[in-house]
Each structure stands twice: as structure tokens, then as C-alpha cells.
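Human:
I keep going back and forth on a fold encoding question. Comparing notes only helps if you start from a blank page. Show me how you would write down a chain together with its backbone fold. Write it directly below this note and I will take it from there.

Assistant:
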Amino acid sequence: MGSPAVARLIAHLAFAVLMVRGWNELGLTRSAIFLLLWLIGFVGLRYAFDASLFFSPYVALLDIALVFLIFRGDVKLY
């Protein structure tokens, strides 16, 4: 398992964890929007580009947006 596969796994796990963690903060509408955005990326990038190259960074960008919405800013690591 190479580093792109590990990055893909981390991005998808983070998305799932953030969706579960932020369900109450986001509400039903925002949660549905993020799930729809994920689905659009999953389906749409397969037709437009090579999905293995662009889907993982797309999910990582969704993760960043979720962190900002759920935690009201960046997460402090100290």
C-alpha cells in the first residue's frame, strides 16, 4: 500500500468521521449537501477525469470545509 492509497484512506475515513461527528452541528440540510457533493464527485469525476487522481483531493477539500463548519474554525493541535 503506497502513500496515495494511505492518503485516500485517511481522506475517506476523515469524511465519514466528520459527517458523524458534525451531524448535529450541520443539521439535515447541510449534511445532505455534503453527502450530495461527495456523490457528485464520486460519479462526476469518473466521467470527466481519471477518478483515482482527482477524487481523493476532492474529498480532502470537503474534509477541510467540514472542519471549518463543525469546529467554527481551525482545530488547535496543542
Remarks:
- Helices lie at 3-21, 23-48, 51-71.
- The chain has three helices and no strands.
- The chain has a mean pLDDT of 85.
- The two ends are 31 Å apart (CA to CA).
